[in-house]
Each structure stands twice: as C-alpha cells, then as structure tokens.
C-alpha cells in the first residue's frame, strides 16, 4: 500500500477514511477503546501535502496504524483498560509512538487489552472482551454450519488471545496495517497466533520501553503486529535503537531491517525443543509443528531435537518474578498524582485503600497480593531470589542451545487454536495465563527475539501459528527465516464476507488484491 501511495493510486486521506469506515463497521469486535478520527485525518492531510511535493518520509508515511492502550499518547486518553486510569491523558508520547508519528504514520486509535495487560484472552478489561474477527469469517462459519444444529451463532464468538488482543484484531480485520502491542510473557505472539497475523517480540533492549506503562520492567518489550513478516521488519527498523530515556536500550546504532531471501538452506540449523511436546498440546498443532520441521528438512536445512532442561520450572519462576515486579510497579497508582481517586477523606491510608480497591480489578489486586507476599522479608530469599537464579538457568539453556550451532528454534505459539469465549471464562485468569504462556514466557525471561507466524487453518477453519525464537539481537536472521517460512506455507487471507465491499476497496492496491476476500 506504501507503493500505491507513492504512485498516487490512493491518497493518505482516502486510505484513512476507508480504515475509519472499517473501524465503524467492525465496532462489534471491540478492538478499539479510543478512535482518534480527527487526529488521523489531520495527519493524513499533512501526509498528502508531503506526497504532493514529492517529500514522502518513507514507507510508513500515510499508513494507518493502531497502538495498544498501555502506551502513552500525548493528548489522547490512555486507560490500560482500567478504572484506575480512566480519563487519564498523558502529556507525552511513548518513544515508539513518537517514532511512528515522525515517519508520518496515521494513528487510528488505541486498542483494547486485558486490564494493565494482565491476561491472555483480552477479556478482563473494563471495556469488555475483544472478539476475534475469525469468529465471523467465511472459513469458520462454513465449518460451524456442518457441526452446529440451530445453535445461537453469536454465542460462539472466539477470544483473540491476549493481552494485545485489540491490536491483533485491528490488524486482522483490516482496520490498520500495523499495530503496537506489548509482550511480557507472550502478549503479542499469543493473540497473533489466534488472529492469523504476524506477532513479533523483539530482543529485550532493541526497542525503547519509555512511555510503555510498565508491567514487568525486566521482561516488557513493545511488540509489533502486522499481516506479513516484511511489514514487521519495516516497523522494527523504525522503532529499534538507543533511547536516552530508557537505559536498557542498546547503545549501538541500528541499521534498517531489510530481509534478504533465503537461498542456501543447507547452512541453516533449526532446533526443536523436546520439552515443548507437552500432553496439553492439541494434536492439530503438534501435527503442523512436525510438518513445519519436515518442510525445513526437505529444503536442505538441518533439523535437530534440542533440550531446554529447565523448561518445567519456567511457569512458576515467571509467576514469582512477574507478580513481584507488578506489586512494585502498581504502587504508583495511589490516587494522589494521576488517575482515579476515591471520595473517602477520613485519612490518607483510607483514601489509598479505597482508591486501589475501586481502581483495580480482581486479577490486578491478586497479582499485587502475590507479589508483595514473595517480597516479604521472610520470603524474599526463598521465592524472589530463587526465581532469579532459575531465570538465569533458563536463559543459560537457550545460550547453550544457540552455542551448539542452532540458528533458530521452532516451537508452537499456543496449545490450540482460539477457543469460544464461553469456554475460556470457565478457568480463572491465573490458570489460563499459565497454560497460554507455556511456550512464550521463557523467551521474555531470556530477553530473546521471537515471532509467531500463521501457518494454516485448523479443521475448525481457525488460524494456527508457530513460533520462531532467535539468538539475542539476531532479530534480522530470525525474521529472514520467518519470511521464508511464510512464503512456503501461503497462509490464506481471512474472508469477512460482510465487509467485502469495504475491504476489497482498501486492498485493491495491495499484492493480496487477487485473493483477498474473494
């Protein structure tokens, strides 16, 4: 679509209006918390002036994007889907948001999430759950017709995964071309797999966290959701680099991420972690995982089984470290400086307590309680310090595997395809998160780059994604392998019949035009 803008086949304002029209048509998905229509149209107007003068800022100029509602956006409400920040308007932009705007991107709005990004379904925010666009796809509906006998169609809508479900749904439903998510334990890759899009978690320290409202400082990474790997690489090239406002970012200058085509597969070694073959893994995901490994092998790559021996400890270790940092981070929400403040004025302590009780949901309060328990003086050594030691062992497992000559690891992203909301809410948040982050959270503890790429549709007509994990700061190599895989599998385009007219007009300039929504 960037090429179409440069050639004048479509203007930024036309593109913006088409995406805004789609946002309105897909409002029932609940992907957006705030739609910044006026801001986007003004940005489109500026972009149009640049194109007319022949002064385009680059590949993102005039491209509609969306941002998860836990990134600060100057002058636009940023809620984290919580009562605690309802009505909060930041005075500054997160570094990643500013970098997108500096390249001429159009900010369509802020996307829905689990409250403070704590969850794996995008069902636990105050604005209600996000619905997976695939629930309304021709592919899923046709499969359901064969099985259902007069059941209520609408009660079977599917979750998007989380916590960046709004961003994944926004990209999947064609309302924008790229979206920012955040990834602390899989929150970008999990919804990407369920919504049939590409979800990239860059190496820790490659992209600035400044302005991302923190959940777990030592694991949070801004994530990127797009409809193809090349697009993710373009966005990463813009976002990556040192930020004086984030001391954890790398010092070295970063070159643009242009992805070469893989030609000589014989030099590539793919690792298959044996510990990831768990009893909970659905047979369909397992079968596709094997097919993918065979695909690499048949094309000349070396595929070997590897071991990450401390995998079984990673969920418990992640829970201890995650809740401990959450407890510390959530202390800032006290009702004094910003956000919600209760009406109780008996004492400062009573005001703190009532503000936090009213402002946070059960999930957030539960994690604060757990984290403070692990950080108590008598528990600190037994829980927090021990978990940090296990985290080091988990990180070392990955280092050992990559030092043995493996270039990229291939794993499932999720245990199964997206499930209906009614099924998902039977389990509590902690159980769900522990299951859904099984294959993703160790990557955050080790600070590695990983990307989920959609591979195929399940027997239900729903997307299944696989995850590639790379060496630290070898994001370009990781994406090059992912791009090759994406080209081989030719994942089908979502067919949203009701939106046919609008979608085909938005995409008449894209390469996908011939297959999109036919």
From TrEMBL:
The record's section on InterPro entries has: Amidase, Amidase_dom, AS_sf, GatA
Q: Which GO terms describe its biological process?
A: glutaminyl-tRNAGln biosynthesis via transamidation; mitochondrial translation
One cellular-component annotation, GO: glutamyl-tRNA(Gln) amidotransferase complex
Q: Which domain of life is it from?
A: Eukaryota
Does Nucleotide-binding appear among the keywords?
yes
* Presence of the UniProt keyword ATP-binding in the record: yes
What Pfam families does the database record attribute to this sequence?
Amidase
What range(s) does the Amidase domain occupy?
19-137, 159-479
For this UniProt record, the keywords arranged alphabetically read as follows:
ATP-binding, Ligase, Mitochondrion, Nucleotide-binding, Protein biosynthesis
Q: Which Gene Ontology molecular-function terms are recorded? A: ATP binding; glutaminyl-tRNA synthase (glutamine-hydrolyzing) activity
**PANTHER family the UniProt entry points to:** GLUTAMYL-TRNA(GLN) AMIDOTRANSFERASE SUBUNIT A, MITOCHONDRIAL (PTHR11895:SF7), TRANSAMIDASE (PTHR11895)
HAMAP family for the chain: GatA
Protein name per UniProt: Amidase domain-containing protein
Per the UniProt entry, what species is this protein from, by scientific name? Sousa chinensis (Indo-pacific humpbacked dolphin)
The organism that produces this protein has a lineage beginning with:
Eukaryota, Metazoa, Chordata, Craniata, Vertebrata
